[in-house]
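Please describe our next protein:
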Amino acid sequence: MPIRPATAADIPEIQAIYAHHVLTGTGSFEEIPPSVEEMESRFARVRDRFWPWIVSIDASGVLGYAYATQFRERSAYRFTLEDSVYVRQDQRGQGVGKALVAELLALAEAAGFRQMIAVIGDTENVGSIGLHASLGFQHVGTLRAAGLKFGRWLDVVHMQRALGVGSSVVAGADPGRVG
């Protein structure tokens, strides 16, 4: 399946995929789907910082998307990214998400990032947990009852994977740009 950098033209399909997950799932703790305009703003913020945002496509359009953002805003986190991945409902279980995250890992590693964190909504999200585990992510913690959605308290699973040299010290290293 072809994977390429996302473009602004992909945003309406990306928004539709995400809206479905917001309205029907617990992978995102958002409760109201963001508008196309809001998704355009989020996309611009990621691309302006040269973090990766990619899509998987075929003749039917965008099958899924993934992007990475700095794990937290403080400068000490500049080597650590958090991934997000969402797959179109009719493509789930077909390997789209795994292919996207694998490519995201490769892009982040090539740019000099050192850690990738997965923040997975809901301990029952076995698809995302399994996908990340299959790509070498390790479970590093669970926040119990951290969010309330659809009338139930949900946990948040944290998984982590080293990139490149991981936590090894390399003097003067700083992540580059992902184009």
